[in-house]
């Protein structure tokens, strides 16, 4: 399983970097987890990126889920209804694969700015 660690704010400025990392990951790895434990803010652009990654993973027959959402990020995922869809259980239902809980994996590359959504 590949883990993509997101940190800082996921907003209109940083969402494209996260989108690129998640798209590459779900196209090449059969199971991708986006760890949001380092995220301090997530707006609708971030939710959209996460849902698009889940959709792309399902399209290619792979699994995708998020973990570690807290604070504002967890609230945004809950209010939008995305949390159930992006959970490991939602991913398993979506792709038709029931399985074990994930273990940590590698991280995706990043652009290197302090506000980037993706960090090593």
From TrEMBL:
Residues 1-81 form the STAS domain. InterPro entries: MlaB-like_STAS (IPR058548), STAS_dom (IPR002645), STAS_dom_sf (IPR036513). It holds the Pfam family STAS_2. It comes from the Bacteria. Residues 85-120 are annotated as: Disordered. This is Anti-anti-sigma factor. It comes from Micromonospora purpureochromogenes. The lineage of its organism: Bacteria, Bacillati, Actinomycetota, Actinomycetes, Micromonosporales.
């Amino acid at each position: 399983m590949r883990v993509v660690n997101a940190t800082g704010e996921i907003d209109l400025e940083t969402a494209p970097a996260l989108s690129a990392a998640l798209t590459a990951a779900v196209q090449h790895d059969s199971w991708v987890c986006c760890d949001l434990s380092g995220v301090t803010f997530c707006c609708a652009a971030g939710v959209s990126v996460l849902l698009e990654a889940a959709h792309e993973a399902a399209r290619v027959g792979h699994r995708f889920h998020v973990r570690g959402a807290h604070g504002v990020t967890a609230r945004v995922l809950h209010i939008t209804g995305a949390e159930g869809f992006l959970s490991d259980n939602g991913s398993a239902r979506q792709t038709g694969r029931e399985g074990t809980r994930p273990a940590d994996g590698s991280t995706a590359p990043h652009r290197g700015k302090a506000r980037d959504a993706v960090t090593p």
